[in-house]
């Protein structure tokens, strides 16, 4: 059974939906167009629809489409995107080559100014509900990979990110991997991606509570303007097919906005809530 994203009261059981018949999956690989090497954890999605997945460490993917009539967008951090039309899929194209983008170093404007530590985001570990994702009774959840959850944040002054903190209330997986994405806020929704580095958060076996990622090696600077920070589900592993899920506490709060989408090309949905996610930072 798939567990769709939902608001789950702490004492309620998991909402499950009947499993839908799966079409024959497309299988292939995402490669670097310049070097021919695999592109780890590239994302594949159908524009404006909840269809997509994420490739593994070797760039190999399993993409489940109802029919070969959809355009597929292939992306990865640090690469230009590739648009694969239905005709190419019907003709048998299964290897997609992404062109590398020129990397530019971001200028950290606060490096030589007096700074002090601060936090940005929701630091509480309890919420009104738990926002859940996962599956039950399936050996794979590759159709769920690519899902993103995050929040709109506004640094009052320029800041340098030091650590990311995310609270996991539930976690029945032996391994979880997420990507940190930052977007400019455009028309109230995530817009242009801001990161050129692949920043990943790994959650070890059954780990719950606050999970922290050191961001100092990446030298990520934020301007004093709204930004959208999300976690994108890249990978999960477990030896038990039943009751696979994780959850993040969420607080109802109209002052800040929670964003979510099914995969890398799906439409964003907006919620008047805040997840338990915050940054430690240095600010002026």
Description of the molecule:
With 284 residues, this protein is mainly β. It has one helix and 25 strands. The protein has two domains: 22-98, Immunoglobulin-like, CATH 2.60.40.1120; 116-283, Jelly Rolls. Helices cover 2% and strands 46% of the residues. The strands form five sheets. Strands 12, 15, 16, 17, 20, 22 and 23 form a seven-stranded antiparallel β-sheet that branches. The longest helix has 5 residues, at 86-90. The relative contact order is 0.23.
What is the highest CATH level, the class of the largest domain?
A: Mainly Beta
Q: Which structural class matches the secondary elements? A: mainly beta
Which strand-content bin applies to the residues?
A: over 45%
In whole angstroms, how far apart are the ends?
Answer: 49 Å
Report the biggest beta sheet as strand number plus sense, adding barrel if it closes: 7 strands, antiparallel
Order of helices and strands: EEEEEEEEHEEEEEEEEEEEEEEEEE
Q: Provide mean pLDDT, rounded.
A: 87
Q: How many separate domains make up the residues?
A: 2
Gross morphology is: globular
Number of strands: 25
Helix fraction, binned, reads: under 10%
CATH topology tier name of the largest domain: Jelly Rolls
């Amino acid at each position: 059974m798939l567990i769709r994203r939902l608001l789950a009261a702490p004492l309620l059981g998991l909402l499950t939906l009947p499993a839908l018949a799966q079409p024959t999956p497309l299988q292939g690989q995402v490669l670097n167009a310049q070097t021919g090497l695999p592109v780890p954890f590239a994302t594949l999605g159908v524009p404006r629809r909840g269809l997509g997945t994420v490739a593994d460490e070797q760039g190999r993917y399993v993409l489940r489409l109802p029919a070969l009539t959809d355009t597929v967008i292939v992306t990865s951090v640090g690469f230009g995107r590739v648009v694969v039309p239905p005709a190419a899929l019907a003709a048998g194209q299964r290897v997609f080559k992404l062109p590398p983008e020129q990397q530019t170093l971001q200028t950290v404007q606060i490096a030589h100014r007096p700074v002090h530590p601060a936090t940005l985001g929701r630091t509480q570990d309890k919420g009104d509900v738990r926002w859940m994702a996962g599956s039950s009774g399936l050996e794979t959840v590759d159709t769920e990979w690519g899902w993103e959850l995050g929040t709109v944040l506004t640094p009052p002054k320029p800041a340098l990110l030091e650590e990311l903190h995310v609270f996991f209330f539930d976690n029945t997986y032996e391994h979880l991997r997420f990507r940190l994405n930052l977007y400019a806020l455009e028309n109230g929704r995530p817009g242009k991606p801001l990161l050129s580095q692949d920043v990943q958060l790994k959650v070890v076996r059954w780990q719950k509570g606050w999970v922290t990622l050191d961001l100092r090696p990446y030298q990520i600077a934020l301007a004093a303007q709204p930004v959208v920070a999300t976690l994108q589900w890249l990978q999960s592993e477990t030896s038990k097919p039943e009751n696979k899920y994780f959850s993040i506490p969420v607080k109802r709060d109209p002052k800040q906005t929670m964003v979510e989408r099914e995969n890398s090309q799906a439409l964003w949905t907006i919620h008047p809530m805040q997840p338990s996610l915050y940054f430690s930072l240095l600010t002026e």
